[in-house]
Amino acid sequence: MAGPRTEPAAFTPAGGVDVEALYRRYGHSVLRRARQILGSDDDASDMVQEIFAGLVARPAQFDGRSAPSTFLYAVTTHACLARLRDRRNRLRLIDEHVRQWIDEADRGSPDARAAVQAVLAQLPDDEASAAIYYHLDGMSHAEVAEVMDCSPRHVGNLLARVAEKFARKEAS
Amino acid sequence: MSDHVHVSDLRFDRLIAGELDDTAAASVRADASACVVCSTRLAHLTRESELFARRPPLVAPSRRRMWWIAAPVVIAAAAAVMVFVRTDAPSGERTKGPDEPSLIVLTGAPEQRPHVLSSGDRVRAGDYVQVAYSAKRDGFGAVLSRDGAGTTSVYVPADGSVMVPLPAGISAAYPSSTILDDTLGVENLVVLWCDRPLGLQALVAELAANGDVAAPQGCTARRVTFTKEAR
């Protein structure tokens, strides 16, 4: 990437993380993605609060080695997946499913979104994350690899595994 | 599996956040302008960002909620205390049948063993509040509060907008305890156990308006009014 890089004011002059600045600059993105994954405005708002309150309490989570955007994409994905699985495993009494992707998530094909919805909560974390980034966020393999800190080839393998599971589910 | 033809939200988010250098930003804008789906998406995300920026500043929670730090001692205390809990229903609660859950509220200073909190008791800022229950069937629950300043809070669940699941059990605990803040005065606590998960918004609104919550159909309520003093 050529030329000077303009970094958001994510760090204070004293070297600490400026969580309020991150919240202002990236909160909308965290909120949107949490809403897309969880399918609930209330849950998404809670997730925003949880993630940024977590940063206030544990600022060392963000060490500045990655861009704030990729860091928060990963944190949001993991937190939302944990909540989905929590619902699935612990809240077995609630008749609640992985919800429909909302319209604004219309990046992958409808079939892909439906397949993601059906099996997301059952996938291993790395496969579920890759599926979210690819099908929900519309990222390229290279972008997914950057957020997940792995190679694009590995992303391809993860998505291929997900596709196999989708196909198996459809066949069954 | 091929990559997408549209600009990803990540690239747009980076553009909007100002993460990109001039060249990369120009590239994203050029890609967006070449595709009506992308340009529409960029406009939407930009607007979304502007609306979010109008929100109030990030505020740390005024009440610290602990995920079951005091679990062993409170559960043990609950088991002991359950033996002595009255079986007749206090005023304002529906009559309990043999299958109805028992609800008790425990409190104590962090360094103390918990004791049952009853209406008229005095507690201190910094004390914790924990609800325990015994139920023969699965249910859902919440703990709501209106403090001396008239502010309503949801103590349980610690997050989310619906009741937490409460599996059947004896001397079981609601999933989190609450450290009371320093808002002094009379506080109304409403503990709910329900046979189905209810949304909290209407219940909180009712508590804010009336200072109490009528137990919805299928719910058991326990109310405790206590006075919070300075530590």
Short synopsis of the structure:
Helices cover about 65% and strands about 0% of the residues of chain A. In chain A, helix 1 (about 20-40) runs antiparallel to helix 2, helix 1 (about 20-40) crosses helix 3 (about 70-90) and helix 6 packs across helix 7.
Written overview of the protein:
The complex is a heterodimer of chains A (172) and B (231). Chain A is an all-alpha fold and 172 residues long. Chain A contains seven helices and no strands. In chain A, helix 1 crosses helix 3 (68-89) and helix 3 crosses helix 5 (125-136). Chain A is globular and about 50 Å long. Mean pLDDT of chain A is 74; it is low at 1-15 and 89-108. With 231 residues, chain B is of the alpha+beta class. The termini of chain B are far apart. Chain B contains five helices and twelve strands. The longest helix of chain B has 18 residues, at 36-53. The model of chain B is unreliable at 60-96 (pLDDT under 50). Chain B has helices at residues 9-17, 22-33, 36-53, 71-82, 201-210, and strands at 65-66, 102-108, 115-116, 122-124, 128-135, 139-146, 152-156, 164-166, 169-173, 177-179, 185-194, 219-229. In chain B, the strands form two sheets. In chain B, strands 1, 2, 3, 5, 9 and 10 form a six-stranded antiparallel beta sheet that branches. In chain B, strands 4, 6, 7, 8, 11 and 12 form a six-stranded mixed beta sheet that branches. In chain B, a hairpin with a 6-residue loop joins strand 2 and strand 3. Classes of the chains: A mainly alpha (172), B alpha+beta (231). At the A-B interface, helix 1, helix 2, helix 3, helix 6 and helix 7 of A face helix 1, helix 2 and helix 3 of B.
